[in-house]
Amino acid sequence: MPLVSRSLRIIPAVPLEASLRDLIQRSVGELQSAPDSQAKPSVTLEIPRTRAHGDLSSSIAMQLASQLRRPPQEIASSLAERLTLLLKESSLRDSIERVEVKPPGFINFFLNPSFLHSLLKQVLAEGPNYGRSSLGGGRRALVEFVSANPTGPLSVAHGRQAAVGDALANLLGFAGYRVAREYYLNDEGTQIDLLGASILARAKETLNLPSSFPENGYKGGYVVTFGERLAEISGRKVLEGSGAQETARKFGVRELTKVIRGDLDRFGIRFDRWFPQSSLNRWGYLNRSLGLLKRNGTLYLSEGAWWLKSTAFGDDKDRVVIRSDGRLTYIAADIAYHRKKFQRGFKLLVNLWGPDHHGYISRLKAAVQAMGYPPEALQIRIVQLCTLKRGAETIPMSTREGEFITLTQVIQEVGKDAARFFFLLRKSDAHLEFDLELAKKHSLENPVYYIQYAHARISSILAYQKQQKGAGSLSSDYSLLIAPEELTILRVLREFTGVVELSAKSLEPFGIVAYLQELAEAFHRFYDNHRVVSDSKELTAARLALVKGVQTVISTGLRLLGVSAPEKM
């Protein structure tokens, strides 16, 4: 199974880490000769790459080396000695077993097994709510994703955006936000006009009417199908009339929106709202928003055109919003749309865009500030492209040429669970290669199967135990869980809350993927070395509780990713 490699992870301020940071900061202050006049470096805690190096680690000694003009190893030793004393007097005295120093100056902390045992009790008590965070504080968040132009069925690239966006919305909801999902439907503009012209040409061909297929028109088989349907519905008289182009355009948008909705429905994606771009002008949002910018002086007239003073908000140049001939640039609609998002009461706006929009980020953030909203309220994440492969063959994806495999075809080939999981196998800002052959395998080599199999295997163990005579409850003496593999599982379970919060803060669901792979690996290693059900009732009960905890967290993590947690495989 291609496991995501363990790397140093900065841990957010969950209770134990927050208290430990305070103690480290206090020790640093005592070490500095003149703490009031010297800058106090930020204290971060990380999870070491190697378990033997402890459960938490701080590099604060290396940060202080230049300031104190002492070797980091020496600073670390001084801090560790002081921390050992402070821990004995603090609320963490029963949580942290010992402190060690490793070259070149890391301070490593080892958790007490009794603390890990109490953690298991918490996992079982909270069940599917274990790991929830109050990070969002009940604030409203709007995640806008996919938002593909309705010019063709959804491609694999759109599928990746859909998987990332839906998982991110789930994650933010789990982290305390009130989340809504939105699809911005670009139902007007040059590409939509081109789609209408392409469908109209195919419709006229069907009726043997004179036609001219537009240069750079959409050539997919779906355009031919829509042309045939339009010809059947409208007939010769309508298609020869002056309104034929508009009829074809509206038909194309309506029918392709149905196709996109169907694609997303099969993928398990539901949007709370589909927001049509055309409504901005129809409802007057556009004129009112641009009027606001004119009144506050951030939209100014120069050389006959209206410019957004975006350089005042960090952009590299001012941007034309209304051309000298009166035509609007693309950003005009986005200004109105994002103002409407804020007016609807959302405090956090998250946009997921494709890599071709990277250069557009600074101007939109400038527009948000020009309207008086805080720049941090708009968070834009780029979801990189996905290369679809079958063996050594790379499959082309060109919507206009019609030479691509659709999202629905991928789902049909590998299944919804595998498709969603594989789209999340890399950070969203990293290019992804989607291996269709691996995604179809029913073996531990397949990463989603590896995790789901752990869940199913635990279900089988728990079902077997229930069938046995005299089967007791999961309540037990968890201090019996002392094997290295058992303690490793407990350590990984403890990290879930921090991973959730860090993933939500960074707006990156990949952290959940990496975590689940690590937890599944820890379980499989335990299962390969130990019997869960043994002759010892006490040890059996403790181990049943342990694997139930693993199952609970795997189920929660998969749910956040939009992937099922089967009980049988």
Describe the structure.
The longest helix is centred in the C-terminal third of the chain and has 25 residues, at 537-561. It is built from 20 helices and 16 strands. Among the domains are: 9-111, Arginyl tRNA synthetase N-terminal domain (Gyrase A, domain 2, 2-Layer Sandwich); 121-135 and 444-561, Isoleucyl-tRNA Synthetase, Domain 1, CATH 1.10.730.10; 190-266, no CATH class. Helix content is 50%, strand content 13%. Strands 8-7-6-12-13 form a five-stranded parallel β-sheet, sandwiched between helices. It has a three-stranded antiparallel β-sheet with strand order 3-5-4. The protein has a three-stranded antiparallel β-sheet with strand order 9-10-11.
What keyword list fits this structure?
20 helices; disordered N terminus; five-stranded parallel sheet; Gyrase A, domain 2; 569 residues; globular; Isoleucyl-tRNA Synthetase, Domain 1; three-stranded antiparallel sheet; 16 strands; alpha/beta
Percentage of β-strand residues:
5-15%
State the secondary-structure class.
Answer: alpha/beta
Label the overall shape.
globular
Query: Can you give the helix content as a percent range?
Result: 40-55%
* Poorly predicted runs: 2-8
CATH homology superfamily of the domain at 121-135 and 444-561: Isoleucyl-tRNA Synthetase, Domain 1
* Tally of DSSP helical segments: 20
Named at the architecture level, the CATH assignment of the domain at 121-135 and 444-561 is Orthogonal Bundle
Instruction: Indicate the radius of gyration in whole angstroms.
Output: 29 Å
Mean pLDDT: 92
Describe the biggest sheet?
5 strands, parallel
CATH class of the domain at 121-135 and 444-561: Mainly Alpha
Distance between the termini: 17 Å
